[in-house]
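Anyone able to model this chain together with guanosine-5'-monophosphate?
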Amino acid sequence: MEEDCLFCKIVNGEISSDFLYENDTLVVFRDINPKAPVHLLIVPKKHIRSINDLTKDDEKIVSEIIMVAKDMAKKESVSESGYKLFFNVERGGGQIIFHLHLHLMGGWHQA
Ligand code: 5GP
Ligand code: ZN
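re: yes, here you go
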């Protein structure tokens, strides 16, 4: 838990948010300002600032984020039509919330 981190507050329930999925490692919720018909954020519970801060110990977290993204794409019916998965890394990479999260965007095209 990092003080003044918005996503830590969401993860801990300090700021209420509807989770589409939750397990011991991560939560999934909709982006508040969606830039695609389906725009989800897959967010580890552990505070990690960005991809740059990952360590060997975080390997399981990273693989879970990707596996859950795949499952969420199916649940949101965008698996067949296709979707984007991306991490913004630091300010120059467009990151504005400095708590690691994977964007899942899709739903522009019907399968
Ligand atoms: P970044 O640019 O850091 O990769 O993406 C941060 C994302 O978090 C943005 O797409 C933004 O719309 C989303 N976001 C910012 N504040 C909130 C919030 O309070 N709730 C939710 N659900 N999404 C947020
Ligand atoms: Zn955080």
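The chain has two helices and five strands.
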